[in-house]
Design brief:
globular; homodimer; WH-like_DNA-bd_sf (chains A, B); alpha/beta; Arc Repressor Mutant, subunit A; 313 residues; 3 domains; D-Maltodextrin-Binding Protein, domain 2; 11 helices; DNA-binding
Chain lengths: 313, 313
DNA sequence: CCCAGTTATACCGATCCTGTATATCTGAGC
DNA sequence: GCTCAGATATACAGGATCGGTATAACTGGG
């Protein structure tokens, strides 16, 4: 019943190996093995199946991970920031997220942020990059996760890169194992974002470069609408897998990777340059966004690749 | 960064004294003093003001308590139940709460329950006792917090007793320091629950016994409506303080204690006798409700008195 | 001024954690 | 079937941390 062992356990679950976890934790492997055994004895359950290529969570282990990861993270943040003057900030902070990242990011992010900054009311707006940028320049939005932008009035830093996949309805012929060539996209009706989002420009620029002509029958800025149109068989979507994981699990949607070329979308964190916030606050919030994203990526929940972090002076 | 010290810290905060906390924790006082000092050094903040009559939380201490109590409890429950077959139950559990307890109980209760039973979808219904009892007998509601009932088809056990206060609008003359006699109630327009709830019968029976005639101008089963009517100056309400703490803090409502006689309302936990649930599951859920209530009462958030617990064989 | 009650300090023994060295196990490749 | 690489498990010793006992220092109240 100690955070210590729990942190070890979670790291092992992430790494899938006691050995690798011992390395990243900076302790010796036998010590870690021992802690796992003690934790298992304490709880009276087997947490891992030991194999010759590492360890694998049992059902109980998976349950423990699911129920302890978030509270443990909240504790860590709460203790880290309790001494910080930033924790005293009383204010509303307005966070902007793109629709294609809310499903995976919103809830854990709010958990973490409210643990670190209990006096702050966090508000989340879901909108396209251009709307969020406008909101930030007006001062209505404080910090956003958006597509890359070049604007001197914003601080922007890359967060992660995510592969895009082709998503179709239940009756489509898409299979995760069979990649679809980009040229094939031109022969299928596409449902693209209405506003010039990162995904849409990525798709359109590639089409232009390869001299393909796309059929875009519908366009909408609502991810919800996009997915229901796809589900109804009205067309195909180009989306990050994380944005429709639930529907794919539920067999409502199918997907296939893209190739020749594959497409990606880049996300980053942006804050306004002239923030009326306590010094360092926005930076910390940005760090927590990064940490939360790193955690989701590291645990395999978010299939993306992290961009290199900000240099830590 | 150890649950150990955090638990000690929270207990001290609850008891208001290192000495008393040491007794209830079963360790020596110097050891506990030491742990507090170490925790304060770790975090770099002063958590308590030491006085000759105990200790008092500083602002940072209060913040730490607010941000760590819930996650810590979730961790404890998650670890306690990870090995239990009950944690594998996949089912929806329908919980009934009275409107006057939801505000204070719903959120922490859901936190705790979902940590203990991750596979269960908890649904909360807010209704009056008679509706909840009916729902439980029909099997639509599994477990409820309700006024005391005598019904052989239900298992019922007392949970806590709470004082009722007179609540008026912002312009009323009520003051927390000046108790209002019951006789005075008859001279004020009251807004009482429409259904025969515990609060309403308590008020009406007392009036009958003392031969007072009440003026009940409006009645509604919605606590929301009740409070907005009171706020608009349409009348007075008889409510537990916990049901309108937020509005009183916000200076939208005022209150005064009742005397001659004072009124209370009793709450208990009830489950149907013929549950189609795994053996012991409802019992455990009931225990968690009790624990959560005890925690809220112990920390002073819920100004009520616990009923004696079930005998623990 | 004294006393009861509180928190803080000093020291000691026991426990738990970690690192080093080594054993054991398992799956892949020949 | 055998071997080997890579993984986890066991044994033992050193060191840090925790809790207990004894005692000091502090603060209000009578």
């Amino acid at each position: 019943m100690d955070t210590h062992r729990l942190r070890y356990f979670l790291r092992i679950a992430d790494e899938g190996s006691i050995n690798r976890a011992a390395n990243t934790l900076g302790i010796a492997q036998p010590a870690l093995s021992r802690q796992v055994r003690l934790l298992e004895e304490d709880l009276g359950v087997t947490l891992f199946r030991r194999t010759a290529r590492g360890v694998q969570l049992t059902e109980e282990g998976e349950r423990l991970r699911a129920t302890t990861a978030a509270p443990l993270r909240q504790l860590e943040l709460a203790m880290r920031y309790v001494g910080s003057p930033l924790a005293r900030v009383e204010r509303g902070l307005h966070i902007g997220l793109p629709a294609t990242a809310t499903g995976i990011l919103a809830s854990p992010l709010l958990d973490g942020l409210s643990a670190a900054f209990p006096r702050v009311d966090f508000q989340i707006s879901v909108a396209s990059t251009d709307v969020l940028v406008e909101g930030m320049l007006k001062g209505a939005v404080d910090i956003s996760v958006i597509d890359p932008v070049q604007d001197g009035r914003l601080f922007y830093h890359d967060l992660l890169v995510e592969d895009l996949v082709l998503v179709g309805g239940r009756t489509s012929d898409l299979q995760p194992g069979t990649a679809i060539e980009f040229a094939e996209l031109a022969r299928r009706p596409l449902i693209l974002p209405a506003s010039p989002s990162g995904i849409r420009t990525s798709v359109e620029n590639t089409a232009l470069r390869l001299k393909h002509r796309l059929q875009s029958r519908f366009s909408t800025d609502s991810l919800q609408v996009t997915k229901s149109l796809i589900e109804a068989g009205r067309g195909y979507g180009v989306l990050p897998l994380s944005a429709c994981a639930a529907e794919i699990d539920a067999r409502k949607l199918r997907y296939a990777p893209l190739c020749d070329p594959s497409l990606t979308r880049q996300l980053g964190v942006a804050v306004t340059a002239n923030l009326e916030l306590p010094r360092g606050f926005a930076t910390r919030v940005g760090e927590i966004i990064r940490e939360e994203a790193a955690r989701l990526v590291g645990s395999g929940v978010w299939g993306a690749r992290l961009s290199p972090p900000l240099s830590e002076a």
